[in-house]
Amino acid sequence: MKLNILFLYFVTILSLKSFSQPASLPLIPKPAELIITEGVFKLSAQTVLVQNKLFKNEELLLQKYLLEHVGNSIKVVAKIPAKGNYIHFKNKKTLIDTEAYHLNINPQHISIEATSGAGIFYGLQTLFQLLPLNGNQLINIPSLVVNDHPRYKWRGMHLDCSRHFFPVNFVKMYIDYLAMYKMNSFHWHLTDDQGWRIEIKKYPVLTSTGAYRNGSMIGHYRDHTFDSIKYGGYYTQDEIKDVIAYAAQRHINIVPEIEMPGHAVAALAAYPQYACSGKPVEVSKQWGVESNVFCPTEETFLFLENILTEVIALFPSKYIHIGGDEVPKEEWNNSAYCKALMLKENLKDAHELQGYFMKRIEKFVNSKGRKIIGWDEILEGGLAPNAAVMSWRGTEGGITAAKQKHFVVMSPGSHCYFDHYQGNPDNEPVAIGGYTPIEKVYAYEPTPDELTAEESKYIMGAQGNVWTEYIHTPEEVEYMAMPRMAALAEVLWSPKQQRDYINFRSRLLLHFKLLDQQKINYAKSVYELKTLVSPANQNTSVLYSVTTIADPTGIRYTTDSSEPSLQSHIYSEPILINKSTCIKTAYFKDDKQLNKTLTTNFIIHKATGKTVTLKDLPSPNFSADGPFTLVNGIRGNLGRFDNKWLGFCAKNMEAVIDFGEPTSYSNVTIDYLNLTESWIHPPQKIIIYTSTDGLNFSEVKTVSSDELKKYNNTIQITFTVQHTQYLKVVAESIGIIPSGFPGAGNEANLFIDEIVVE
Ligand code: ACM
């Protein structure tokens, strides 16, 4: 009994210490337990590594790392030296799991203990993250004790090498980044409509034709513009073997993805006989979802099985990813062959036909001793008996699969899609859309509350996805993946109760030194300036404040439209805006500007800074700075729904502005978004009312739907001069999206920003 109490006491001390201190050490993911002790270990050219034959692989990796990053390798000796400091790997018989490790750094030695090479490897990653603390010359590593192990067993990152192709040397670098963050699964997206990237010896046309397209989309999808440059590339089987071995040395499993039955146009460009139409097609130049999919004939199954046979021979992975997402069913519904097959197999619809497709493929993959994993659409036609699910359209698919006792990897678009914007789109390279800043990734909880403890055991972990439609080069992959990968790694490795974003961010700022030393092109969005506008001077003007997580003296600004420089004003307190002004702010670190300049154009009008009340609040996801957004003096970007708009889902916007005293005005300008491809429609009617008491309103002007159609996204409404304290603006939603528009039949969104009153 006593022993137990003592043990608990010890554990409590350990966790308290580890919780309170590691912001000073740049360790990501944060170790489960860490105590800093006395003294430093001086790593020098005289430091030796004591040989342990069990861990030859890790010995070689330590030598390689030190040679590349510190400038000298480390000598391996047979025995503990009589004098001088040393590093030692030890085989421990029991630890909490095979990935756990115990790291002890003191002035005499560094020891890493684990039951397997993986544990030693993770101990090394912790050690490597401590090396840049003092620069490259003098390496003083603080004494400490770490007991560490992962929370989840699937800690993954994905890379789409079809939309854009990345050379082997970069794929290896990407694997190094996963290793740095103790991730253990690399999902290699090798086939899609825009390019087939894996050599299959039995079907050489897959790569001679399928690996190349005759042009690509340029700019954003909605621009529908293409170049005509031949683009492509593929990995030979020898290259793939080399990458698999490289990853295995770093304790990373590679899950190959061979997409079927959809996202198959590159394969069908090579072998059109496996589509229902059989018509020749080109490798896709455009992004999106294509209707041309594999036809479920016996010949197609044989073709896919032959491909999978070669894939399985190459990749030792227990799971083979067979895609299954975004499969339009028109071709199957129009095919006499598919109709007959559905009748024969007693399948009620094309979704069940997809279930049949997946189950046949699963049977084949299982016969080779492997399992399938697929995107959550594989649930729709009935899940194959042993399939695992990757939940991407949200978490519902993962929840359903776990309740059915199927293993799950969580990868919801909301938190795990690293092709989304991570900062203000005005400052970021063109991305597919969305907004997934690092704090959102860090807040992600892979185990949904909806699951019982028993069901939760089916959540293997989570994965970050890097789709590359808008990512062309290795540098751009780094930019989108880093540092969001670090945030996800901590979610997946560190104990849940230790998760603390402020603490993570402090470690991240120190950890950037390591990324800088390795010349990794990580995004600086975490330094992005955040602005706040609030009413000032009894609602006659506004105050503009800027914050940053870093040293605030790095913020410079101008008010004359010129670009900020090191000579511009240092921002030290909120700026009062009482006339129309263009403010430009930028953040400078080490004399260099990080991120693009932030430009805010204020228009000061009669309603600026006034009190606004809304009858119905906007959707929580599109509520910007609340009702005040409508009169904060900043107009939303007319081409895009950024965080300056109020969004109402199938509801009217009804705002009352209180000028504080009777005020004369004769026109109102209202901005709205017209982005029907994103289900955002203009209002169908706008009505202006006035009131002297805020209770009884009289109509001043109504703008009908016909008149609104003459304007795209902004309208100025003029009327005879009014002199009242209150003004009401009603923008009526169209409610349901009409036929002929994307999302027809669903609720339409109405996005409104500044209501300018003159
Ligand atoms: C996906 O993003 N289509 C899985």
Provide an overview of this structure.
The protein has about 750 residues and is α/β, with parallel strands linked by helices. It folds into four domains: about 30-150, Chitobiase/beta-hexosaminidase domain 2-like (Chitobiase, domain 2), CATH 3.30.379.10; about 155-520, Glycosidases (TIM Barrel, Alpha-Beta Barrel); about 530-540 and about 550-600; about 610-755, Galactose-binding domain-like (Jelly Rolls). It has 19 helices and 35 strands. The strands form eight sheets. It has an eight-stranded parallel barrel, surrounded by five helices. The protein has a seven-stranded mixed sheet with strand order 1-7-5-6-4-2-3. A hairpin with a 3-residue loop joins strand 5 (about 100-105) and strand 6 (about 110-115). Helix 4 (about 170-180) runs parallel beside helix 6 (about 235-250). Mean pLDDT is about 95; it is low at about 1-20. The chain binds acetamide (ACM). The site of acetamide has 4 residues, from loops.
